[in-house]
User: Fold these one by one.
Assistant:
Number 1:
Amino acid sequence: MNRIALQLLDVEGWRELSRRERWSPPSPDVVAAVRRIVAAVRVGGDTAVREWTRQLDGCDIATTRIAGSAIAAAWDSTSDALRTALSFTADRLRSFHDAQRETAPRGDAMARLVPQPLRRAACYVPGGRAAYPSTVLMSVIPAQVAGVPSIAVASPPDANGSVHPLVLAACHLLGVDEVHAMGGAQAIAALAYGTETVQQAAKIVGPGNAYVTLAKHEVSTSTGIDQLAGPSEIVVVASRGAEPELIAADLVSQLEHDPLAWALCLTDDAALARAVQTAFGSAAGGAARSGIIAEAAGRHAAVVVCESMHEALAESDAFAPEHLSLQGEAAESLSDSVTAAGAVYCGRWSPVSLGDYIAGPNHTLPTQGAARHRGPLSVLDFMRWPAVVRFDEATYRTLAPTACVLAEAEGLGAHETALRARLGAA
């Protein structure tokens, strides 16, 4: 078993690491490659998707859409235990997201916002290092609850040109019959612009690698996206009495996602910090993905000793992590004071790993500081709120003179003319 070290930093050292590493710009070569792929698919459609899939994924796929029989067969070949787990999780997630559904207009009969589901959503499910049926559940269920009538799933092809059977099984469970074996920037472009066989989506959701994220940015002027997802992040704010072995386990659990993942423990107890360091070395060295964990830990993992819990929380809020875990009585008492975190997990019985699967709130969370302005993926991400205005004459004659004053002040004479044309009417 390899011993993997966790850095011990003071607050200034931590701040410097965060400033230096967190918002580093993407490689110009990767940006150029993504733009080239996206432009090719926008013009070339299915032919370009096929060519880029052949080049990047090493398989030649004539038709990206997976046959319904293959989707059903994947469910049939899934073990009873896993089918039960997926079904139980789906029911729990659906119940949680049902509470978010909006059906009532906001406003009155003359001016209101009317909630409407998007016409079509695309859910990207990453592949590569692992299969993520949980991401199928987390992205498709809120879209279904919102009432989106057309939902497509895209996921990178395997060596046989299909999609991982666990992803297909989750799609079958949810009744999704449109699944495409395509990944990376070419998949995002196909979903954003449409091809001969892939219908354009109103919104694309789901995490992915740097190519996927940059492609979502590239197409975001043409279609909606949920967010620009970065590597997984966890911050543990821990006070005296917290259990170092549990803290270490939680840090390791998020580092196994990605060599660029972040894991931080902030504490005001120097003895606890040293204990977390020791426990981390044992937990990380014995993990199945120890190579990935070691690379991530060497870049973006640390335990930081702060002067107080107040300082620890302030540092967490400044970082605005994807996942925030509060462990220890004093730390847990701060839950209502958190101002920036994608999700907050309080106490030893609420680990982040439970939230990744079955806690209820969505596991698609803001990263790279976006928790300052948004929370988890939700039903509302799959809805639009168009305004509907229908005034009667009396109301118009009450409001229009004020609008005329404002139009004149802004120098928009045609606006004022359009308003006064109606004021002059009988």
Note: The chain has 16 helices and 16 strands.
Number 2:
Amino acid sequence: MALVHSLEESAHPSGRRSHGLTDSPRAQHVAIMASRIRVRAVFILLDALVVLGAYGIAELAYLRDKAPARYWPHFVTFVLVALALQLAANHIFGLYGRMWRHAGIEEARQIVFSTASVVALLVALWPARHALGFEKVPLNVVLIGGLLLTAGFGIFRFHSRLFAWQRGAKRMGLRVGVIGTRDAGAAAVKDMMRNPKAGLVPVAVFDDDAKTHGLTLIGVPVVGRISDIPTAASRYGIQQLLLAIPSPSQELVERVLAAGDAAGVAVKVLPGVKELTSSHRSLPAASRSREPRIEDLLGRGQVDIDLESLHRAIAGRRVLVTGAGGSIGTEISRQVSGLAPESLVLLDHD
């Protein structure tokens, strides 16, 4: 049902095409409100069909050996009462004022609360079913119909998540291995899945926590530790590694860089919260990943130094860098080489 997403886009101000630059704010407001009313009307109509289908299936399944004439009039009365209560509950729980493209656990909880409250109310009204005119509708129809109703609302609103595996096999892009299974890692995987146009496809997750191995993170397998990256890279066709751990330690960054180097795969770092909120807000967070910096290896912010003074101290002199084979030594050697030394000697005990 791509209809849900297209309806949401048409109801959003940025999704409406402008037919002229002279539209007054009042006219734009009226157009937006009309679009929202149209979208809600369609949602209400689809929800009504789900209610009729859920309780209808429950009624037919329970009374399949009875003649329809014996229960049909009572069922019509019952389903009209249930329909009115359910649509009212959906409105109260805010199911007609959400953007379902980005729906999550909170929206799923509201669906359950809405249907559960209606089932509870119908059960509470059961002693008065004779007065209401649906005494021949079994109580089991209410309970089974409520379960079917919850499933129907969920499938209708979360179909893009439930059937994402169909699109996943066809997705093309840079195959990414995500390092980290906590909140940042999950957010990075979700971000890439929600934004296929970014051209990033999560194919594997790595974490040193052995309890996560063999599990999946939003459908992406957790395949092993950071040390397993070199062997897993070819198996999963990984083309890029994304370090999705907030404020990683120097030791962790060095291990990830070493694993990426052994696998022949480039390493990117997920930006921090400050970087995410400072620029390019329209781009997915995973698309704003950056190259590792020297401060990531130092475990602190980069210190600004007087390059002119350093140039005078190094230019024309013979310079020895010890520990030059490590990540920090490599960066120091690179910077010293740009200051015109007479010669540069690299020394390392490895």
Note: Strands lie at 174-179, 200-206, 216-217, 220-224, 240-243, 266-269, 318-322, 343-347.
